[in-house]
Amino acid sequence: MEKKGTRGRRVYGGEAFSTAGEVKVWCTSQEESVLKIDMKANIWCVKYNLGSSNFIAAGSADHHIHYYDLRNISQPLHVFSGHKKAVSYVKFLFNNKLACIYR
């Protein structure tokens, strides 16, 4: 799964790119990823916050959404739990609200 961000960065995650549970951020002017976030579960979707390209949300097979600040990826800012199945879609809405689909 590929999502375009701002400032020439792209973020990848999901089974098509990694079954090891990782999210990679690439700069379009470089050949290698500039950031890698190791996750404990497979990533099904990832989305930039268009209001600030420093923040991403990743939906995972462990029924959670992991919300990260890319300036400090040592741990998520927040983990949204309570979904009954794998989170397959996330989208940022107005006022920094987040919507998701799980199935």
TrEMBL record:
Signal peptide range in chain numbering: none
Transmembrane domains' residue ranges: none
Domain of life, per lineage: Eukaryota
Gene Ontology molecular-function annotations: ubiquitin protein ligase activity
Gene3D superfamilies: YVTN repeat-like/Quinoprotein amine dehydrogenase
InterPro entries recorded: COP1, WD40/YVTN_repeat-like_dom_sf, WD40_repeat_dom_sf, WD40_rpt
SUPFAM superfamilies: WD40 repeat-like (SSF50978)
Record-given protein name: (rape) hypothetical protein
Native source species: Brassica napus (Rape)
Phylogenetic classification of the source organism: Eukaryota, Viridiplantae, Streptophyta, Embryophyta, Tracheophyta
